[in-house]
Amino acid sequence: MDTSIQGNIPGRGFFRLAIDRSSGAISALQALGPQRDQAPFLAPGLIDIQLNGFAGIDFSAPDLEPERALAVLEPLWRTGTTSFCPTLITNTPERLSRNFSILEQARRADPRFARSVPCYHLEGPYLSPEARGVHAAELLRLPDWDEFSEWQEDAGGHIGILTLAPELAGAVELTGRAWRAGVVVGLGHTVATPEVIHAAVRAGAELSTHLGNGCPQTLDRHRNPLWAQLNLDPLSASIICDGFHLPPDLVSVIYRLKRPGRCILITDATHVATLPPGRYTLVGTEIELLPDGKVIRADGGSLGGSSLAMNRAVSVFMRLAGAGLDEAIAAATYNPARLLRRPGLCAALVPGQPANIMRFRPAEEGLKIEAVYLAGEEVWAS
């Protein structure tokens, strides 16, 4: 049986969209005329490919349990996010094995979690000590394919993104093996030379993880990791648009160079997102959530992730980059779906796509979400 919803589709006009409840897919799309001023908008649910935690749930926590992982769903739906990649950061090998196993238990326990999680993201432990940010220095390691393969087994084959520093011994080789295994390799927390960045891309690297962050405060003006990543077309660029991580000019430059299909909005949010200001712990490192929403390492040495939500990231991106609503939505839906190449992701509102949909109204400080559908089921409404 079909159900239908109506609204403006950014850049296209006013539409009626039919959903086949039995398959959970969009079954038909009917144009009803030009955009209507008083009507809400419809778009695919937002996709966050780098989420360390949210609303008090930390995917890297030592006490993570399946029910805690499942509790992240409703807070994310409130932000219009229907798909996300739980991200485990640098940790002990044992903790990574355990928490990937816990995420798999959550996947088996609730089909809505399985529908919402196309894959997992492993950020570290193969990162540069010189650009580690909030990652614990004593837990960083050299790339090891056998070790990664063990974590992949614990994750049920669902590690879909691996962020590493390509200058480390064995990193380019591991990039090639991961690419052949269907894993998206992101370059991040790196001080690589341009030559190494080029070598990693030839080996199969496809992503610049939070480009413009995860690097030292001072860089050589020419021989640094940024220019090659900006220049190389095979690399999509994920960016954190919270007003703290990147200045407006850099957001605009990345947008101009990586449009239309290779600019991806992420939150890099930690468990402090939605929590009150104060001090918290992330894999043994003390972080502080400031009253303005900025998250820093408590010693002031670096940023410590973010408290950002995807609905706000879209609005901030529009303001900083000068992007239109349609392009901003694409950077949070179509572009990450295109990168991941995973089933179950709604890349665009067209028949046959999974009915992962948000109904919203634009607003300067964050899209105002009115309803969210996951595989055709209304899972949240304001």
Radius of gyration: 20 Å
Order of strands, main sheet, comes to: 5-8-9-10-11-12-13-14
What are the segments in which pLDDT stays under 50 over at least 5 consecutive residues?
none
> pLDDT average, as an integer?
96
| Fraction in helix | 25-40%
Q: What sort of overall outline do the alpha carbons produce when their principal axes are compared?
A: globular
What is the rounded distance between the termini?
25 Å
Helix tally?
12
**Structural class, judged by helices and strands?**
alpha/beta
Strand tally = 20
Strand content: 25-35%
Main sheet summary: 8 strands, parallel
Outline the structure in words:
With 382 residues, the chain is of the alpha/beta class. 28% of the residues lie in helices and 27% in strands. It contains twelve helices and 20 strands. An eight-stranded parallel β-sheet has the order 5-8-9-10-11-12-13-14, with helices on both faces. It has a four-stranded antiparallel β-sheet with strand order 4-18-19-20. α6 runs parallel beside α7, α7 crosses α8 and α10 crosses α11. It starts with a strand and ends with a strand.
Task: From the structure above, extract its key features.
single chain; alpha/beta; 27% strand; 382 residues; 4-stranded antiparallel sheet
